[in-house]
Amino acid sequence: MQLHNKVVIITGASSGIGEAAARLFAEEGAKLVLGARRRETLERIAGEIVGKGGEAIAVAGDVCDVGYAEQLVATALDRFGRLDCGFNNAGMTGEAVAIPDMTEENWSLTLATNLTSAFHAAKHQIPAMLKSGGGSLIFTSSFVGYSAAFPGMGAYAASKAGLIGLVQVLATEHGAKGVRANALLPGGTRTEMAGNIDEEPERLAFLNSIHALKRIADAREIAEAALFLASDRSSFMTGSAMVVDGGNSINKV
Ligand code: NAD
């Protein structure tokens, strides 16, 4: 059990990578506070985990709301008495539109969801982790904005690149007290964010082709990397941009 008795907040836990992480972390003994906007879905997932003997509580909310990060931490402390890890994973792509045509609203919402939410998460999770003797902050970044660019993804790329700068500073600010901070950079992954990829053969073929493995990931494969960052097995890892991208970043053929 790699996360035995560790208390973990996971956002974006109602689908995709966050849901896969919730199920995997529960199997590894974690006590979970699950966050996302879809209350019923989140409660169903938490219920299934509890039904299998795990521990999970659903706290529905919007990571753009300033009070939500605090609420998630308060729930972890009230319910489980400590906080060991925050897997800050909720995210959205925003509208795919070139910068001259992008609305202020799209830019602001994408940055608020993907980057400003990380500020709020860190602000509230770090004091709780310090009281627990240390912890692991994980932020889901992306290959987009790091090793690849696509037209129309300006807000998304900027937000995901911003997370990498943020973890570097967080790592230096709190490393001496045992708080680690890392960015997780998935390659293309089969989740709701990828849309109906299996019904769009041309788009799927393109996405497959840009990875050295010539396929995209299943959410569980990315969750396995998050598990490593959450667990003590990554105890000497901090400030990193951890690429889990099927060779997307080095692929040129
Ligand atoms: P997904 O759409 O299945 O999951 C996104 C999750 O975030 C959902 O639970 C959604 O409800 C939640 N969410 C979105 N906006 C929210 C908000 N404002 N408040 C609360 N919750 C919110 O997609 P996914 O692929 O599992 O995405 C997880 C993370 O992985 C995202 O940060 C995404 O940018 C990143 N990522 C995905 C891919 C990919 O190809 N799927 C690649 C690289 C990075």
TrEMBL record:
Gene3D superfamilies referenced in this protein's UniProt entry, alphabetically: NAD(P)-binding Rossmann-like Domain
Pfam families (alphabetical): adh_short_C2
Transmembrane feature ranges: none
Taxonomic superkingdom: Bacteria
Keyword Ribonucleoprotein applies: no
Positions of the Ketoreductase domain: 6-189
The keyword Oxidoreductase belongs to this UniProt entry's keyword annotation: yes
Molecular functions per Gene Ontology: oxidoreductase activity
Keywords: Oxidoreductase
Xref: PANTHER family: 5-KETO-D-GLUCONATE 5-REDUCTASE, ALCOHOL DEHYDROGENASE, PUTATIVE (AFU_ORTHOLOGUE AFUA_3G03445)-RELATED
Listed NCBIfam families: PRK07231.1 (NF005559), PRK07478.1 (NF005681)
Family as reported in the entry's similarity comment: Belongs to the short-chain dehydrogenases/reductases (SDR) family.
Protein name: SDR family oxidoreductase
